[in-house]
Design goal:
The complex is a heterodimer. Chain A contains 7 helices and no strands. Chain A is mainly α. Chain A has one domain. The longest helix of chain A is centred in the C-terminal third of the chain and has 46 residues. The N and C termini of chain A lie far apart (42 Å). Chain B has one domain. In chain B, 76% of the residues lie in helices and 0% in strands. The longest helix of chain B has 34 residues. Classes of the chains: A mainly alpha, B mainly alpha. Chains A and B meet through helix 4 and helix 7 of A and helix 2 of B.
Chain lengths: 242, 242
């Protein structure tokens, strides 16, 4: 079976039913190991143990952006290639991405209160991340406002592609503007500037978050396919009765 | 209920005590159900609230001390505009599909019908705003007694905004572009509510005026609007529908 065969919803459902339990188990194990390593990591010389919010804050920020990038690819799949599962993936991914972005904003806010003295500041990185959150909410609202699913998919696809401009803004905001937020220390030219004792647990939690996202996305896609089938059956039944 | 399921078809399973419900309760529940479904716009008010508050620092600058000073005013304006959004669909959607004619020939007094629709609008549009307000107030660096005072004034003042808005919604019901006329009619009438709401919220922060003075007047305005709104709306509906 080629990977392109998964475009068939029924084959996708069978593959998802097989994969999801294993992925869920792997996620749980990886989370346990990653959190164990995170707890063992040393405290920061200035921030003390507060620095460990980073192990939640940074991966959720990465996942929020990764999810929008995936939604953009799905949007292209809907508009350009008419892939049958592209809009299912986009619809399933939106709430997940919104949740990760919200987690990033909330953990960052709680981290900022002791370290910066304020819950919020309107600097470039925080503001562009908040804009990303608003874009996610806008996409979710658009899905729920347009009744016809295929029309909604096309409208959401355009909004997603336009919103993708925010991703490089978020990434480079700390370089382009004078921000309170810390500069790039992992993905930068010249390599990471974080000591391995903290970098390794960070990458482990990031991998755990990514696996969690994949598991939840497949489960949500499965639910969406089944939901559409139930709706079609109900419509057929209603038209046969009436 | 399934997303995308038409909100004009009757649901398949009525509640078991349906025959014991009064017409007003049935109308209230119906309005609330329509508001939370596709195209209803219940939680879009909160999203609009968040967007308006997020856009303000781009206009006035990110200086936190300035934002803290005008914070209560911004939040009140945003709440007013968000309430206004859902008002023009209040009677117009029922007028479009003919249910307003049915309601007019029904047994329930039109004043109580208007009051029931006002309650449904407040519960689905304004109450989520009040619940979200504490978090959104953090974006403008309001916390502690400032935030508590602001949320309390919003809780007490938003019913006034809804019930005064009822009058405009009823007047504009038969018009096509009624939304703009509605705003022109309603906004001047809500000015006293705005004045005392912001005064009370500011009094909670600092200032010689104790919180209770403008707050009591705000309560009085709300109570008066709870009476005047439905009567004026009913009179306007009778005139419009003749």
């Amino acid at each position: 079976m080629r990977i392109a065969d998964l475009a068939n919803p029924s084959r996708f459902l069978r593959a998802a039913n097989l994969a999801i339990p294993w992925l869920g188990g792997a996620t749980a194990l990886l989370f346990a190991f990653a959190l164990y390593r995170a707890m063992l990591a040393p405290d920061d010389y200035q921030q003390g143990a507060t620095v460990k919010i980073m192990f939640l804050h940074v991966p959720s920020a990465w996942l929020g952006m990764l999810c929008w990038a995936l939604m953009t690819i799905a949007a292209l799949g809907t508009l350009v290639w008419r892939h049958p599962l592209a809009d299912v993936a986009a619809k399933a991914a939106a709430p997940l991405g919104a949740a990760f972005t919200l987690l990033c904003l909330v953990t960052g806010s709680l981290w900022g209160r002791p370290e910066w003295g304020t819950y919020w500041v309107w600097d470039a990185r925080l503001t562009s991340e908040l804009i990303l959150f608003l874009l996610y909410l806008g996409v979710i609202a658009l899905w729920r406002t347009v009744e016809d699913t295929s029309r909604a998919a096309r409208a959401v696809a355009i909004l997603t592609i336009v919103g993708a401009i925010d991703l490089p803004i978020i990434k480079f905001s700390v370089d382009w503007w004078n921000t309170l937020h810390q500069g790039a220390s992992v993905f930068r030219i010249g390599g990471s500037t974080i000591h391995p004792a903290i970098l390794v647990p960070l990458l482990l939690t990031a991998a755990a978050f990514t696996l969690l996202f994949v598991t939840l996305l497949l489960a949500a896609m499965r639910n969406e396919i089944l939901r559409r089938r139930v709706r079609t059956l109900r419509l057929l039944q209603a038209s046969a009765a009436g | 209920m399934l997303p995308g399921w038409s909100n004009r078809l009757p649901p398949r399973h009525e509640s078991p005590n349906e025959s014991e419900m009064t017409p007003l309760t049935a109308l209230l529940l119906r309005d609330m159900r329509i508001a939370v479904r596709v195209g209803g716009g219940a939680l879009i008010g909160v999203l609009f609230f968040l967007v308006v508050v997020s856009v303000t620092p781009f206009a006035v600058g990110p200086d936190l001390t300035l934002l803290k000073r005008i914070g209560p005013a911004i939040l009140w304006l945003a709440a007013l505009l968000a309430s206004l959004l859902a008002l023009d669909r209040l009677f117009a959607s029922d007028h479009e599909d003919g249910s307003l004619d049915l309601i007019l020939t029904g047994s329930a007094p039109l004043e109580l019908v208007a009051a029931a629709k006002g309650v449904a609008h407040w519960l689905t549009t304004a109450l989520p705003l009040v619940v979200a307000a504490p978090l959104i107030a953090l974006l403008l660096d309001l916390d502690g007694p400032a935030e508590a005072g602001l949320v309390l004034t919003l809780l007490v003042g938003t019913p006034a905004l809804t019930f005064i808005g009822l009058i405009g919604a009823a007047i504009a019901v038969t018009l096509r572009r009624g939304g703009l006329l509605l705003a022109i009619i309603v906004l001047p009438l809500t000015v006293p509510v705005l004045i005392f709401g912001v005064a009370a919220a500011n009094a909670a922060v600092a200032g010689p005026v104790p919180f209770g003075t403008p707050f009591t007047v705000l309560c009085a305005l709300t109570l008066a609007s709870l009476v005047i709104g439905p009567f004026a709306a009913a009179a306007a509906l009778r005139l419009d529908m003749e």
